[in-house]
Amino acid sequence: MHISKIHFENSNVFSKQAKFDIVKNYHYPGFNKASTMAHKLSHALEYDMVLKEFGLKIQKMPIETARKVVDKFKSHSIATSIKKEALKSMGLPEYGRETYNSLKKLGRYSMENNGEFFAEAMSDALMSKNPQEISKKVLEITRKRLGE
Ligand SMILES: [Zn+2]
Questions:
Q1: 114-127 and 33-53 helices, crossing angle to 10°
Q2: How far apart are CA 148 and CA 93, in angstroms?
Q3: pTM for this model (two decimals)
Q4: How far, in Å, from the CA of 119 to the mean position of ligand 1?
Q5: Ligand 1 centre and the CA of 42: distance in Å?
């Protein structure tokens, strides 16, 4: 789901759209309003993890470094490596039918790219009553990497 003004003006529109998205497997089964916030914050978290890797804070960034940071964020290399580690810990190969079936449970939106995968898995793990196995692994690995 992509948030627009209409979702804030009438929350029924949001709920209807969310239900439709779940039926169409666009989102994982526990997806709700709070999940959207967790999803967006997870994008910010991934961006922050990239900055941390460069030892940077956003205010003190030379433009050439800013370009490298943006490129790294766009490549979603951190999200990709977390996904790989999560699959490995579940005994799943990077590709294949079993892996595909496991990833599909998170919804089609999470399959658009590894950045969306990371944000959907994090919001599922944080907000759903019964998160997917892969989402729990992603949260666990992210917490470890953040030193929590
Ligand atoms: Zn997103």
A1: 120
A2: 27
A3: 0.77
A4: 6
A5: 8
Which residues fall within 8 angstroms of residue 111, CB to CB, at 6 or more apart? 103, 104, 117
With H, G, I as helix, E, B as strand and everything else as coil, classify residue 13.
Answer: helix
- The helix/strand/coil state of 88 is helix
How far the first Cα of the chain sits from its last, in Å, is: 30
CA–centroid distance, residue 90 to ligand 1 (Å): 24
Residues 20 and 1: their CA atoms lie apart, in Å, by 10
Structure tokens of 84? 């790989």
Going from the Cα of 82 to the center of ligand 1, the distance in angstroms, rounded, reads 16
pLDDT, one tens digit per residue, over 6-45 is: 655 666 777 788 787 888 888 888 888 778 888 888 888 8
104-110-115 Cα angle (round to 5): 140
Under 8 Å between Cβ of 27 and 21: yes
Task: Judge whether 54 and 69 are in contact, CB under 8 Å.
Answer: yes
